[in-house]
């Protein structure tokens, strides 16, 4: 029995068409076919790179591929990684490629996109203008609220460390877990500036155990974002048929709701404080309790909303300011949840790696120099004075370079309407005619490890940011060290490739606050204490989007592999021995 001729021909034609579309064209004829492949299967399948992302090993692996194949590599049929400034960062990020759905699938809160997840440049720019002023360097250094908050939190940090030292003595000197402490202090800093100190968190002193549980649950859920970001259609299908639990445990959704409920409480408290300020005057609220970011965002969003309503002719004459605030409650909460979580998470990761490097025996000289430099402040916590400390700044920059909190991909989509050229023609790595709809990304991890820009890229060397010592200089005197000039050719190249906070219009809006609270924490800690490593077995970096230390679990298992109970004795990241010093 033979098949009818016409259906057979039709089937053959269909198979040939599919073979051409999914095998021949992407492998040999696509503009991307000239780009070096990450794997032999990259032109026809995403499975290779997806397997690394699922295992959270993609960031160092892609860096390895760049060292083998150059600054432009093809990861998947319609996906490219770039590792250069000219023809890379400048093209992808400074010329305004859109973000796509990768961000909003995970970073939306309450069903509302915050600024970070917005794909369109227009809406992103409008939102950024609303809040960028309160995060500007000049605003932060001149903020009476932030100055007072810093004084209070540094005092609380020192008190927490002294308490931990006493407890550690009772345990026989097992060391103090510092990742949790850094999570607490950075959360208190960020939440204090956003919502006001009394409305924010009190994790350093009053809510220690609650804070540890919050941090652990927050981190444990992060690895499951893979499914919504990289396999969005599959995840939606599984959710529709009630099988999402096969890839994402049900507690992850519960944890997300819990975080949203927790943050909404901070928003409501900040709103009440703002009402007091409006009704009774600013002097009725302690300076440290002013909800700086909340008040600015609320005011700007209400103004925009009322203007939009008026333009549409739908303004209700009797609608009051508080009514509009109520309508915008989810927009406000979504934006501030993103600011809060991103602010504490990245800064705490950076400080943990910084403490690890600074507490190594090989870096004892740098710790001593830092302490001597901090002593020149004579107890002052003035932001401008702290910012002038060269050694401190070099240590922060070098830690952000080697241990960027977000070393992973920052994807963008090539624009509609024209093709794109990636790579640098001057060094023979240009690839023209990249079509619209291709996913392109850079990685801070790789940019920060280009040997021609950062010699000995895998070594922690704060001196690379400082002028060489003169022959007559005293190497033990912190005043002998000065930051390289902005006109120094090497520093120009390093800053061009420095990507800890991104670049372009979508650069991290809170970078100045992050730098300030990290520096204040360093002054608070190493201005009073010496640290040395007791146990750093858990200091193995996550190889995915973020670079938090994976830690060692209660039973010795490595990695944050699910929801787990607080166990201060069992879970280890970085345990330090601490000794208080004079000064």
From TrEMBL:
Binding site for heme: 508
InterPro entries for this protein: Cyt_P450 (IPR001128), Cyt_P450_CS (IPR017972), Cyt_P450_E_grp-IV (IPR002403), Cyt_P450_sf (IPR036396), Cytochrome_P450_monoxygenase (IPR050121)
Molecular function as annotated in GO: heme binding; iron ion binding; monooxygenase activity; oxidoreductase activity, acting on paired donors, with incorporation or reduction of molecular oxygen
Record's keyword terms, sorted: Heme, Iron, Metal-binding, Monooxygenase, Oxidoreductase
Entry annotated with the keyword Glycoprotein: no
SUPFAM superfamilies assigned to the protein according to its UniProt record, in alphabetical order: Cytochrome P450
Needed co-factor(s): heme
Oxidoreductase as UniProt keyword: yes
UniProt similarity note: Belongs to the cytochrome P450 family.
Protein name listed in UniProt: Cytochrome P450 monooxygenase
The species this protein was found in: Cercospora berteroae
């Amino acid at each position: 029995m033979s098949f009818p001729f016409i259906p057979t021909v039709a089937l053959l034609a269909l198979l040939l068409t599919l073979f051409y579309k999914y095998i021949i064209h992407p492998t040999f004829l696509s503009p991307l076919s000239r780009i070096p492949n990450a794997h032999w299967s990259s032109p026809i399948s995403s499975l290779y790179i997806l397997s690394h992302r699922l295992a959270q090993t993609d960031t160092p692996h892609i860096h390895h591929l760049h060292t083998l194949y150059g600054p432009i590599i093809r990861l998947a049929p319609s996906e490219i990684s770039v590792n250069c400034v000219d023809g890379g960062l400048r093209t992808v990020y400074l010329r305004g490629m859109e973000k796509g759905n990768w961000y909003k699938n995970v970073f939306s809160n309450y069903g509302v996109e915050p600024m970070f997840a917005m794909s369109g440049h227009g809406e992103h720019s409008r939102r950024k203008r609303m809040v960028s002023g309160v995060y500007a360097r000049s605003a932060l250094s001149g903020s009476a609220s932030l100055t007072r908050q810093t004084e209070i939190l540094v005092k609380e940090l020192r008190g927490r460390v002294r308490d931990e030292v006493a407890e550690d003595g009772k345990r026989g000197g097992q060391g103090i877990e510092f990742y949790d402490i850094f999570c607490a202090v950075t959360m208190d800093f960020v939440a204090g500036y956003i919502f006001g100190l009394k409305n924010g968190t009190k994790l350093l002193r009053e809510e220690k155990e609650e804070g540890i549980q919050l941090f652990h649950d927050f981190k444990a859920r992060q690895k499951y974002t893979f499914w919504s970001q990289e396999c969005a259609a599959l995840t939606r299908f599984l959710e529709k048929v009630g099988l999402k639990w096969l890839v994402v445990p049900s507690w992850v959704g519960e944890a997300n709701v819990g975080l949203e409920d927790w943050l909404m409480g901070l928003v409501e408290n900040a709103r009440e404080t703002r009402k007091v300020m409006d009704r009774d005057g600013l002097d009725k609220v302690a300076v440290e309790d002013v909800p700086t970011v909340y008040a600015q965002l609320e005011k700007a969003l209400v103004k925009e909303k009322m203007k939009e309503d008026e333009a549409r002719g739908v303004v209700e004459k009797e609608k009051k300011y508080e009514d509009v605030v109520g309508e915008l409650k989810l927009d406000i909460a979504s934006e501030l949840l993103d600011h809060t979580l991103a602010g504490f998470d990245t800064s705490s990761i950076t400080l943990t790696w910084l403490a690890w490097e600074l507490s190594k025996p090989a870096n004892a000289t740098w710790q001593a120099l830092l302490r001597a430099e901090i002593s020149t402040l004579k107890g002052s916590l003035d932001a401008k004075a702290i910012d002038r400390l060269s050694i401190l700044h070099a240590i922060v920059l070098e830690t952000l370079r080697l241990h960027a909190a977000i070393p992973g991909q920052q994807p963008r989509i090539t624009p509609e309407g024209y093709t794109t050229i990636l790579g640098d023609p001057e060094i023979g790595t240009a690839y023209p005619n990249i079509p619209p709809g291709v996913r392109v990304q850079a990685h801070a991890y790789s940019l920060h490890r280009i040997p021609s820009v950062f010699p000995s890229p895998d070594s922690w060397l704060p001196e690379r940011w400082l002028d060489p010592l003169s022959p007559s200089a005293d190497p033990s005197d912190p005043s002998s060290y000065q930051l390289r000039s902005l006109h120094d050719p090497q520093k120009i190249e390093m800053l061009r490739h420095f990507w800890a906070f991104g670049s372009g219009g979508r650069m991290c809006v809170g970078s100045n606050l992050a730098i300030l609270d990290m520096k204040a924490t360093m002054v608070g800690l190493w201005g009073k204490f010496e640290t040395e490593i007791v146990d750093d077995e858990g200091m193995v970096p996550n190889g995915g989007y973020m670079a938090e230390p994976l830690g060692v679990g209660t039973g010795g298992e490595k990695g944050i592999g699910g929801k787990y109970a607080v166990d201060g004795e069992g879970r280890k990241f970085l345990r330090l021995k601490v000794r208080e010093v004079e000064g």
